[in-house]
Structure formats: C-alpha cells, structure tokens
Amino acid sequence: MRWLLLGLLPTGVLAQGVAERLNDYPTFARADYVFACMATNGQSRHVMEQCACSIDEIAKILPFEKYVEAETVLSMRRVGGERMAMFQSAAVASTMVADLRRAQAEAEVVCFR
Questions:
Q1: Does residue 99 lie in a domain region?
Q2: Residue 16 included in any domain
Q3: Of 16, 58, 90, 98, which has the maximum CB count within 10 A?
Q4: Cβ(72)–Cβ(93) below 8 Å
Q5: pLDDT band at 3, cuts 50/70/90?
Q6: CB within 8 A of 67, min separation 6: which ones?
Q7: What pLDDT sits at residue 69?
Q8: What CA–CA distance (Å, rounded) separates 85 from 88?
Q9: Is residue 67 part of a domain?
Q10: Residue 61 neighbours by CB distance under 10 Å
C-alpha cells in the first residue's frame, strides 16, 4: 500500500523531503561541532575536512532534534549535583547518549580512517 501512495507523489516532493531530512542540522550547529572537533584533533585543513565529514555522517544517522537532546544530557551530566542525578541514571537519557555515541563511532569509521 505504501508504494502505491509514493507513486502518486510528485518526485520533487520526495526529493525535498529527503533533502530536508539530511540537512536538518543548522549551519551554526555544524560549525560548532567542527570547531570542537578541530580543538580536539588538530587545526589543519585535513582535520577540518574530517570533522566536517563527521558531522555530516552524524546528521545522516541522527535527526537534529535527537542530537540536541543527547548533547543536552551530556551537558547536564557535566554540571553534576543532586538535581542533575536523573541525567546520570535515567534509562531514556542513557539511550539518547548511546544513540549519539553510536552515530559518532560510525562517523569516525567513515571519516577518520
């Protein structure tokens, strides 16, 4: 049934939906990731290309909303304290971070070989 519905949609609508899904990370988020990645891995053009590749790969795997959620959990874990304990032990928070870590690992395999 699904393939029948897809056949009725104009090709441009499908292409636009795919493009939006693959490019739902705003430029500032991509730039922020690349700057942080370069601070960790070096300040060369080659490292910049690897870091840009890395965020592109992460964006293919993880929607931006999920990326932001996982980064927020990681940020809250760094704060510490009693109020932040839920970010350390909550299964949902741990799943969010695990999804981000898997995407980062995949990006590392693709981009940092």
A1: yes
A2: yes
A3: 58
A4: no
A5: very low
A6: 25, 29, 58, 59, 100, 103
A7: 93
A8: 5
A9: yes
A10: 15
* Residue 19 in tokens: 């493009």
Degrees, nearest 5: CA angle 15-10-26 = 30
Determine the structural domain holding residue 104 and report its residue range. Answer: 12-111
In a domain, 4, yes or no: no
Give the DSSP letter of residue 12: H
In the chain, the largest separation of any two C-alpha atoms, in whole Å, equals 54
**Total structural domains in the chain?**
1
In tens, the pLDDT along 11-66 reads 554 445 554 555 799 999 999 999 999 999 999 999 999 999 999 999 999 999 99
Range 25-38 burial, b when 16+ CB lie within 10 A, else e: beeebbeebbeebb
